[in-house]
Amino acid sequence: MNIIQAENYKQMSELAAKKLIEQINRKSDSVLGLATGSTPEGLYEEIIKEYKEGNVSFKDVTTFNLDEYVGLSKNNDQSYYYYMHKLLFDHIDLKTDQANLPNGDAKDLQEECSRYEASIQQAGGIDIQILGIGLNGHIGFNEPGTPFSIQTHIVDLDESTRNANARFFDSIDEVPLQAITMGIDSIMQTKQIILLVSGSKKAEALEKLVNGPVTEDFPASILQKHPNVTIIADSDALSELS
Ligand code: F6R
C-alpha cells in the first residue's frame, strides 16, 4: 500500500482531486467509484473548482456510488442520491444517466443488488474507487463479519454506524436500519483504490487497516491484499502509525 501524508484535510482533498483528474484526463471515459460521508466532501469541492477552471470534463465519465440507504426516496435530503447531486453532480458536466447509485427504494431489493453489480461489469469495471473508512473498519457499508466473497448486497447497519451517522439526521430513530452496498468482492475488483482518512478519531482504524491481521472482523484489512491502493491521510489520522 502506498501511503501519502497530507498536512491537513484540505491538502488531502486536493491530492485526491489531482489523482482523479489525472485519471480522467488520461482516459476520458473513466469509470469512477464514489463514496459519501464527511470525508470526501472536500474532494468534491476541489473537483468542482477544477471543473469550473476548465481543467477537466466529465462528459464521458461514468460513476458508481458505493452505497445507499434502504427506504429513503431520492428526494429525501439524507439519501446518498441527494448528497451526490447536491455536492457534486449538479455542478459538473457528468450525464445524469451515467451517474449510478443503488436504488434503496426499489421494490425488489435483491434484484436491485444483482442489477447494480451487473451494471458495474457492463461498464467495464471501476478504474478508480474512492473509499472512506468507518471507526469499526467498515468500507462501503460492509460491517464487521461481512464475508470477503460478497458482492453488492443488503446490510443491516451496525448500531455504531447508525450512531456515527445520526449527526446527519434529526434523531437516531430516523437513521435507516438497512443499506445496499457494493460488497467487499466488488470493491476488491476495482482496478485502483484511493482511501481517504482524516482526523485523530480515525487514527486507530487506520493503524489496524495497515498493520492488523486480515480478518472479516475488520473489513478494511482486506485492502492489504489489493494490488493498487493509495491511502491519502492527514497527519492526525496518521498519528498511530510510526
Ligand atoms: C460512504 C461509505 C462509508 C464511509 C464511512 C466513513 O459512502 O461507504 O463507508 O466512507 O462511514 O464516513 P465519514 O467519511 O463520514 O467518516
Automatic annotation (TrEMBL):
Pathway assignment: Amino-sugar metabolism; N-acetylneuraminate degradation; D-fructose 6-phosphate from N-acetylneuraminate: step 5/5
Gene3D superfamilies for this protein: 3.40.50.1360
Keyword Ribonucleoprotein: no
CDD domains in alphabetical order: GlcN6P_deaminase
Catalytic activity: alpha-D-glucosamine 6-phosphate + H2O = beta-D-fructose 6-phosphate + NH4(+)
PANTHER family given in the database record: GLUCOSAMINE-6-PHOSPHATE ISOMERASE (PTHR11280)
Family: Belongs to the glucosamine/galactosamine-6-phosphate isomerase family. NagB subfamily.
General function of this protein: Catalyzes the reversible isomerization-deamination of glucosamine 6-phosphate (GlcN6P) to form fructose 6-phosphate (Fru6P) and ammonium ion.
Protein known as: Glucosamine-6-phosphate deaminase
Organism in which the protein naturally occurs: Oceanobacillus neutriphilus
Gene: nagB
